[in-house]
Sequence to fold (154 residues):
Amino acid sequence: MKRALALLMLLVSGTALAATPQPLGRGDWDALLKAHRGQATIVHFWGLTCGPCLAELPAWHDFALQRRDIALVLVDADPVTVAPEDLAAMLDKSGLGKAESWRFADGFTERLEYEIDPAWHGELPYTLFIKPDGTVERQLGAVDFGALRHWSEN
Fold:
């Protein structure tokens, strides 16, 4: 009985390792960019309701392990409300439980999308590649990780 209880406690504490994504509301986008200014940063917008997003999360984990010098920021931009603990569980399952992660905290997602990129209309996945000098490249749709490696080496 004690052994079973100890195993249960270990399993519960293991699932608690995933950090709940922070809420991203109006005005937070500028603060997020400022926090990463001068550093190569990839901001990847994904969602639990987006099949291609879920399929590529493990590849993001692999990339993050290989390129620890590049900040990877994950932002859940689901057009429907998703429980933060469900997001945390999926990130943890993909090996990204400790990655910097955010979630749209405004039900009016169009407002946040416009703040991030006026030309973006919420399609997922969507990725911003930000060089240390602040130049931004945008990718709508699944990422070609071969091309990403090329971007990260230049």
Notes: The helical segments are 2-15, 28-35, 51-66, 84-93, 109-116, 145-153. The CA atoms of residues 41 and 111 lie 23 Å apart. Residues 1-17 have pLDDT under 50 and may be disordered. The longest strand covers residues 41-46.
